[in-house]
Amino acid sequence: MDFLQANLIYLIPVLGLVGIIVMIVKSAWVVRQDAGEEGMQSLAGHIAEGAMAFLRAEWKVLSYFVIIAAILLAWSGTLVETSSWVIAISFIIGAVISAFAGYIGMNIATKANVRTTQAARSSLVKALRVSFTGGTVMGLGVAGLAVLGMGTLFIIFYQMFVVSTGGNVNGLEMEKALEVLAGFSLGAESIALFARVGGGIYTKAADVGADLVGKVEAGIPEDDVRNPATIADNVGDNVGDVAGMGADLFGSYVATILATMVLGREIISDDNFGGIAPILLPILIAGLGLIFSIAGASLVRIKNDQGDVQQALNLGNWSSIVFTAIASYFVVGWLLPDQLHLRGVSFTSLDVFFSIVIGLIVGALMSIVTEYYTAMGKRPVTSIVKQSSTGHATNIIGGLSVGMESTAVPTIILAGGIITSYAFAGLYGVAIAAAGMMATTAMQLAIDAFGPIADNAGGIAEMSGLPKEVRERTDKLDAVGNTTAATGKGFAIASAALTALALFAAFVGIAGIDSIDLYKAPVLGALFIGAMIPFIFSSLAIAAVGRAAMAMVEEVRRQFREIPGIMEYKAKPEYDKCVAISTKASIREMIAPGAIALVVPILVGFGFKGVFEDTSSAEILGGLLAGVTVSGVLLGMFQNNAGGAWDNAKKSFEAGVEINGKMEYKGSDAHKASVTGDTVGDPFKDTSGPSMNILIKLMSIVSLVIAPHISVGGGSLDAIADTETAIEKVMPNVEQEKAYSLAQKHQ
Amino acid sequence: MDFLQANLIYLIPVLGLVGIIVMIVKSAWVVRQDAGEEGMQSLAGHIAEGAMAFLRAEWKVLSYFVIIAAILLAWSGTLVETSSWVIAISFIIGAVISAFAGYIGMNIATKANVRTTQAARSSLVKALRVSFTGGTVMGLGVAGLAVLGMGTLFIIFYQMFVVSTGGNVNGLEMEKALEVLAGFSLGAESIALFARVGGGIYTKAADVGADLVGKVEAGIPEDDVRNPATIADNVGDNVGDVAGMGADLFGSYVATILATMVLGREIISDDNFGGIAPILLPILIAGLGLIFSIAGASLVRIKNDQGDVQQALNLGNWSSIVFTAIASYFVVGWLLPDQLHLRGVSFTSLDVFFSIVIGLIVGALMSIVTEYYTAMGKRPVTSIVKQSSTGHATNIIGGLSVGMESTAVPTIILAGGIITSYAFAGLYGVAIAAAGMMATTAMQLAIDAFGPIADNAGGIAEMSGLPKEVRERTDKLDAVGNTTAATGKGFAIASAALTALALFAAFVGIAGIDSIDLYKAPVLGALFIGAMIPFIFSSLAIAAVGRAAMAMVEEVRRQFREIPGIMEYKAKPEYDKCVAISTKASIREMIAPGAIALVVPILVGFGFKGVFEDTSSAEILGGLLAGVTVSGVLLGMFQNNAGGAWDNAKKSFEAGVEINGKMEYKGSDAHKASVTGDTVGDPFKDTSGPSMNILIKLMSIVSLVIAPHISVGGGSLDAIADTETAIEKVMPNVEQEKAYSLAQKHQ
């Protein structure tokens, strides 16, 4: 135990490494599976080729962005004492690892899809195993790389800034180490912006473009290999649902851990673990959650083809959550002292544990409510189905109404989670709740990524003309995948919200302000501006889908015109050109919304510096962030759930639905109205809705990175004086002397 | 001048009285105009009868509500020292006057419509004069009653609570007087809730119900007298556009003045005007704005039938704004001392004047931007027209995108207004900016109400089969009316936003808290809950329109079935039953959203009392209000502008539009898609969008009324001690001694 205590900091990257090793083993297992006949392999090859084309094009553009941003960071880092040029390197590492995690997910998804098809030829048992193992590879890759990367960098920065300078583990030296680590998070989130938002524009542009020219103009069926945009369409599913979601959660995972570490620095505790126990806790829990996700994933099995797939997924998911909760109890008790103090709030180690449990509960509840609002047969979707019978307009009104209503219960859950975790352990409680919720990210992602793999597998089965029972088996998996896609979005937005709040709290700490007072008009004005940003962002994203789809239409028309023989299967369409067009269009369309997310915090933070006597620019920026977060979370839920409900209202007609005593099927007027809703919902649920996650996190992390530059505390001497005052304030009764001597010892 | 100074307080109700006398004169003039032939009079009679039926039914329900609420207020008022049973009487008076103002507007609108039709038979000059005078009656009625009512009550309460007790004009006694006056505002806003939201549900329910059964099932044309719901439909236009808007602005007008008075109480100034100059200023400016609105209204004339109606309205509007601004300059200089101090902020009387100007500018800019986003021929509407050519879904996506985009510039204007007026004169500056903006409410309402009068006049001309040139003349007025309806909504939401902020600031003062710190998790949680409420409120309102329309359909079907001879013009349909059904349905559907607005602040204010050690329930409620306001303003603009843009995109097809080089007219597929957008936009722009105004104001005013009950300051002795501390804080350099002696003198 003593050895463990002394070397705990080194254990963390080891846990990440374990995740990566298991991932490699599982990945190898998937690749070893039979990929089926040549026709199937060729189809899968086209999709994989398209996915790689997307990544190549994306990376090319991103490399410029990363280099420029890194130079700016290095330059600005040397301007203030609390930061340094190392943050630029940290940023590059974060960006590269995030891109690499996306590559792993995309790569395994495009390998697992065809192998799932082949497995489905023999049994559902095997098909589930292949597809879910593919998802697990993605989950473990994302979580493993995050824990390994952050764990290793923390060791390096801790040595560099704190140990080697003999610095204060709760002081400015540690702040510098964590600030530099924030560069890693910024890098990860920047890549996520392009993966999630660009991916969202990409997938819908390809979808709409392929349909408009292929189905409508050329009269060839959906997913026909002669359509140059078909591969882009299939790639789009992977880009949006696999890579986009993966990058999003990778960003949340990293940012949550980081924010909790930053808040942990300010906690006044004992000298155990070199005094950094509250800093280590979030990353240790992430590591444990990773291990228990591996355990949970091994439970996802069905005994025979009559097995309940959803139940198997639930068993795995709940096991990993419960194991993590139990383990947290012991880890918290072992790691933390009985009493902790953070900015006037005192709490026990048990309180911290309760906060973690609250995070786990919030994540689970959010998923359940999201499922209710988007599932077939439940009241919300059924109401949209009924309103489709009176036309397009009532279908739209119904969906908008359901989407708006769907924000109520999740908001109450979220606010309840925030308030109760705060009641237990102050702002550290809110942050550690987020960390608890994110602990089983590997498992969540495995479940999420399994859906599109099964979906693609079904498409390949259809296109290859395999026997009916194969498609029936993949359909079973796909149906479960639809549910997990919806619940995954609920989890993602909840995690983004808690992450943004944790970052928000961390920002306040580093910016050296002690309140964000809405009673000051500049803060209130900033709250308005902040709340408006998700609206303009959504507007831009939705409009971008329209424009990008038009660009795709032009390219497909050109290929049909200029390449003779496509329609007679004599010439192969230039799939990669469509993919490149779509990628370029999506990245171009990303610039305006992306610039808003990156630039606005910088403009506000620096632009209002010193403008108001009683209100610092950091406080104004805090108001802005609160506005963005609140409005972004609500608009995100509204759009995701409206889109999901419209989608399933349309799907309800495939099996036939009873409206006012009459059965309505595909092709009826009511069904046509439901298609309108589904089309409106597409950019809602796959582009603008999910991008709210990135928007709120990225603006928070940018603010955190610029916080030392706009800090009101001034130089380090001021900050130390502040620390002493803070100690006096927060520790009126408890061991003030000891804290003083601690503070002085480290100066 | 000395006499004026001594009796200034009595001048204010006199100004209100002047407005009312002018209103009576103008009203008598309108009634004296020729109402045309018997057929026209009969149609107008049905509409007037329906409007009264609506008011009777509404008043019946409201009287229960007012009595119950008054009893609760009286009971709770006696519980705390700072309030009293007088607040209940004040509440009843506010409710009755608000209802009476609605009656005046409705009454004159239903008289002016047919007289405008008749006037249009001779000339446009006369038609404009009749319709605009009708609008002026409404405007003067609302503003005159508000100034008279508030002015008189303030004199009474000032005598009762301050003068007769020898109390402190800046102390608790004045707080009590203003708190009781808040009852007046609560009464006004409660009636506005039913008028605006109920009216919004009513008008759309009647509209959709009349169309579905009349046009679709019975095959009779729109506005056919055989349709039992036709009168309800025409009444609905008056209910929503005249009475709803009037009640909304009446509420804003009263609440803004009140909030500024409350903030003015806390200002430390000299002894001029009995020390209450900052309290008197907002109501005096309102009175002056009323007088200059009369002057401006007299300028609204065209010389001949080729005259530009919009230009005439603009001349009147801008004249009243400029006159009011100039007058404010002199009034502020005369009334206020050179230096004022409010909670740590010092400012000059000139700063106060600049804040007023900012309010006037914000109001004007908001109207201009709103017009841009909803006007035919401008980029936003044209983009929706183009997107209609590819179907229903792209029309909807286009409208949603335009609506979201339309929030950007107005939010920046609003935030800019808040921040600059605060920079000039602190929170008093923000409130007085709102008061400045609202000063010309009489003129704004005259312009607003003129539109639906002209609209109805055109309908009567059409139904009576009058010559083509009559309709052409009313159409000219109606076209201008469409523009003023859109700009009126922009003004209404801006005024609601500033009013809510002024109330918010007043609430903080009375609740005895000195900050609303977003860095406390309960406040942040409340911000989330608050921001969610406009979503659930909108969802309920939109869904209510659907249900109420269905109830109307049932009633029309019943009349066709049970009353023989309707179709042969042998039996008169029971118009009032339709009106009653629609009224009852709309009021029933109002209960859930109305209850949210009234009950949530009470639940939060009392429910969280004493729950958190470091966060008072007043602070949590403050966070809730900020969330409601921000989210409500954004959702309101989004819905209003999307609805307005969809409406005009549809109207563009009537004249024919060019899409991709091809002319498209009414009846084309693109036009059908635009009708879908218009139908979706109907509840957006006429029900849920405008109700956001009421929601945010009502929740703020409820909070203000309960503020003394949840105050953290405790009894009056604490408050006086606080005042002394406050004086020390805010006046480190300036005449501290004088302020001390002032405070002691009044104790």
UniProtKB/TrEMBL annotation, chains A, B:
<feature type="transmembrane region" description="Helical">
    <location>
        <begin position="491"/>
        <end position="513"/>
    </location>
</feature>
<feature type="transmembrane region" description="Helical">
    <location>
        <begin position="6"/>
        <end position="25"/>
    </location>
</feature>
<keyword id="KW-0460">Magnesium</keyword>
<feature type="site" description="Determinant of potassium dependence">
    <location>
        <position position="485"/>
    </location>
</feature>
<keyword id="KW-0813">Transport</keyword>
<dbReference type="GO" id="GO:0004427">
    <property type="term" value="F:inorganic diphosphate phosphatase activity"/>
</dbReference>
<feature type="transmembrane region" description="Helical">
    <location>
        <begin position="275"/>
        <end position="295"/>
    </location>
</feature>
<keyword id="KW-0812">Transmembrane</keyword>
<keyword id="KW-0472">Membrane</keyword>
<keyword id="KW-1003">Cell membrane</keyword>
<feature type="transmembrane region" description="Helical">
    <location>
        <begin position="242"/>
        <end position="263"/>
    </location>
</feature>
<dbReference type="Pfam" id="PF03030">
    <property type="entry name" value="H_PPase"/>
</dbReference>
<keyword id="KW-1278">Translocase</keyword>
<feature type="transmembrane region" description="Helical">
    <location>
        <begin position="130"/>
        <end position="158"/>
    </location>
</feature>
<dbReference type="InterPro" id="IPR004131">
    <property type="entry name" value="PPase-energised_H-pump"/>
</dbReference>
<feature type="transmembrane region" description="Helical">
    <location>
        <begin position="348"/>
        <end position="369"/>
    </location>
</feature>
<comment type="subunit">
    <text>Homodimer.</text>
</comment>
<protein>
    <recommendedName>
        <fullName>Putative K(+)-stimulated pyrophosphate-energized sodium pump</fullName>
        <ecNumber>7.2.3.1</ecNumber>
    </recommendedName>
</protein>
<keyword id="KW-1133">Transmembrane helix</keyword>
<feature type="transmembrane region" description="Helical">
    <location>
        <begin position="85"/>
        <end position="109"/>
    </location>
</feature>
<keyword id="KW-0739">Sodium transport</keyword>
<feature type="transmembrane region" description="Helical">
    <location>
        <begin position="412"/>
        <end position="435"/>
    </location>
</feature>
<keyword id="KW-0406">Ion transport</keyword>
<comment type="similarity">
    <text>Belongs to the H(+)-translocating pyrophosphatase (TC 3.A.10) family. K(+)-stimulated subfamily.</text>
</comment>
<comment type="function">
    <text>Sodium pump that utilizes the energy of pyrophosphate hydrolysis as the driving force for Na(+) movement across the membrane.</text>
</comment>
<feature type="transmembrane region" description="Helical">
    <location>
        <begin position="525"/>
        <end position="549"/>
    </location>
</feature>
<keyword id="KW-0630">Potassium</keyword>
<feature type="transmembrane region" description="Helical">
    <location>
        <begin position="620"/>
        <end position="638"/>
    </location>
</feature>
<feature type="transmembrane region" description="Helical">
    <location>
        <begin position="590"/>
        <end position="608"/>
    </location>
</feature>
<keyword id="KW-0915">Sodium</keyword>
<feature type="transmembrane region" description="Helical">
    <location>
        <begin position="61"/>
        <end position="79"/>
    </location>
</feature>
<keyword id="KW-0378">Hydrolase</keyword>
<feature type="transmembrane region" description="Helical">
    <location>
        <begin position="315"/>
        <end position="336"/>
    </location>
</feature>
